[in-house]
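Hello again, I could really use a second opinion on something today. Take your time with it, there's no hurry, and the full record follows here:

___
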Amino acid sequence: MAMPYQTNFWGYVGGNIGESKFNAGCPIGNCNGDWKDTTYKIYGGGKFNNIFGLEVGYVDMGEPDIGSNSKISARGLNFSGTAGFPIGANSSIFAKLGTTWGRTKLTSPSTAVSTGKSDGWGWSGGVGALIGFTPNWGVRLDLDRYNFKFASTGQDTVDTATVGLQYSFR
């Protein structure tokens, strides 16, 4: 069993890009509630054994226009425990559960809107698959949900669907 402070623990790095969907309450009174934007994340991780691991990453949910020239944004550092099952020599499916220290911001030209920044801890979770096409390189698909604290609406979630490349140090 490897531990995070040992040199052979950290086994992969990667980057994904996709779409985010903000599930936040409407702070401006006239929203369509369908706030989507481009999201990306960079991450690295390792395994305690063949099933359980740890992943650390940076996520940026984008900055969709929520109406009336107002924008909302969320980004943060994510720490997750992972549990996965290998499929063949280079592929796997996995689940993640953890926490994100996030920062959010709401901007609006309207004085009637409660704008501002907020930061704090929230839970995160997700599922995914790694499809390895060599022992070192693979395509990774992730579906994740992050809980963020928004200044205007309190705790709300952001869902992401991403695809990217992962490099494994083998």
